[in-house]
Each structure stands twice: as C-alpha cells, then as structure tokens.
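agent> fetching stored inputs for the magnesium ion docking request
agent> found them:
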Amino acid sequence: MAHTDHMPHSAGAPSAGDAGRPVATFSHARLAFGSRVLWDDLDLTISPGEFIAVLGPNGSGKTSFLRCLLGQYHLDAGHLDVTHAIGYIPQQHAEDADPMALRGRDLVGFGVDGSRWGIGLRGRSRRKRLVDAALAEVGATAYADAPLGLLSGGEQQRLRVAQALTTDPSLLLCDEPLASLDLTNQRLVVELIDERRRRANTAVVFVTHEINPVLPFVDKVLYLVGGQFRIGTPDEVMTTATLSELYGSEIEVVRVNGRLVVIGCEDAHHCVDETDPLATHPGVEAGHA
Ligand SMILES: Nc1ncnc2c1ncn2[C@@H]1O[C@H](COP(=O)(O)OP(=O)(O)OP(=O)(O)O)[C@@H](O)[C@H]1O
Ligand SMILES: [Mg+2]
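agent> prediction call returned; pasting tokens
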C-alpha cells in the first residue's frame, strides 16, 4: 500500500453528461499492508444512487476501503476510477476533543473550508450559505448554534451528515455512522442518508457492523473477512452457505421478523452468540451485540 495525501476529484455536482456513469469502479483491486492482504482481485462498480453496505469484523479493511475511495490509500494492484465529488462521515471524530468549544455550525463548516477534506471554497457569505443549506437539509438548524458537547448522539450524527453534504457529493462514504446510536436514532440517520440518495441520486457506501437498520435500502453488500470478500445482493451474500464459506467455519443466517440474525461468527459485531436466547426465539428482535 502506498500512502498519499492526494484527495479525490474536485467537488461539484456531476455534469448532465455524467448521468448514469459509475461514480467509482474497482478493477482487479488489491490492497495489502506488508504480507497482510486485505483484498485481492476485487471488481466493483458503484453506480449513481446505489447503496452499498460494507460489512466485516474489526480489522477486515472496511475503513481502508473508504480510504482508497478518498485517495488516501493507493491500491497495490489493479485500478480504481473515482470520478465524482465525495462526502465523508469518518469513523473517528477528532473534534470531540473539546466539544464545548465547538458549535454545530462550526463542525459543518469544516466540510466547506477545506481544513480537513473540504473543497477550499473562499468567502464568508458563501460559506454561511453552504453551511445553512446543509443544516437545513438534515433538519439541524434549530440547534446549530449550541455547543456540540450539549447535543445528543443523534443530533451530533445529524451534523456530521450535514458536514459531509456541504460538498454536494455524488458519492457519500459513511464509516459506522450508527455506532452508539439507539434504534430510533439509527433509523433517523439511515433515513436521512437515504433521503439524500433518492433526491440527488447520490451513491452511498455505508460501513456498518449491523446490517438490519440499512437492510431495506441496500443494493449490494461487500463483505470482507480475513483477506477474502463476497459481493452481491443481501439475499446472495447474507446466507448460511456464503458466510460459512467466507469465514471458513459454520455460520448460520436466519430471518426473524424480517431481520437477519447471523449466528456463529463472534468476531463480527452483528453476529450473535448462539447461546443467547434472544437469538433463537422467533418473534424476539435480535441480531446485534
Ligand atoms: N496505514 C496503515 N498501515 C499499516 N496497516 C494499516 C494501515 N491502515 C490500516 N491498517 C491495517 O489494516 C487492517 C484493516 O484496518 P481497517 O481500519 O481498514 O479495518 P476496519 O475493518 O475498518 O476495522 P474496524 O471495524 O475496527 O473499524 C488493520 O489490521 C489495520 O491495522
Ligand atoms: Mg473501521
């Protein structure tokens, strides 16, 4: 893997001629750190408006996959074409260091002024207009001036979605945006992201340890485990046969009240312990640890 500070292509809505063109294409892609291969011979096309869930245990390469799309990591082999503006909701939040000193609108503004992964726009009024529009888009205007530290986890996550939308992305990368949210707020954040996807035909790559909150929206799953991967629809990938083959051990996938319950791969957060009575009683919601 070659590390680079290179950023993805410049921001801005795609021109009319780009409609329907893939927002990203991996061809025979390989990423490795020393002898550790995260994936090899990966082919994946991400189309406008597509929702792709990236699943896998800790350390399987989910964040690294997003970093490739961001241009922060370069493939060791194969090709990656990324042709559109990218919005990014990162897994770690450095700004949490001093949450009382930062207002919601300051956080959203980071997406505009290029201090981190923004697009380098100049001008206060333009910045304010973009921030206000992004705040309105996620319904966060009412608490935009409150210190971040006083806001709930769900409200903070809404602001992070707003930050990622300031670049008017054609591809939105979300790294575990549901972590530490309750079920209601998980649903709200997923619906917000899906709303953006439908309205602007924005493709979404969504890293998650829990597939059930996104299951109704997912077109494709990329499932990474120990240097191996599977790509397909949830019905193709989230099966007893496919996951058992991928993990190299016996995994059972069952549906309980429309939710997927994966039993037997304890290293993945979305899997459940088969001794857990919630997992084995039909009619009881289960499926996340
Ligand atoms: N720059 C790097 N240099 C060396 N190793 C790296 C680098 N970036 C990631 N790795 C390694 O690659 C593996 C995959 O890391 P990554 O952060 O992509 O995993 P992940 O699937 O996002 O895990 P988690 O679910 O814990 O967030 C890890 O073993 C990590 O230590
Ligand atoms: Mg990660």
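agent> quick read of the result: Residues 251-289 form one domain.
agent> awaiting further instructions
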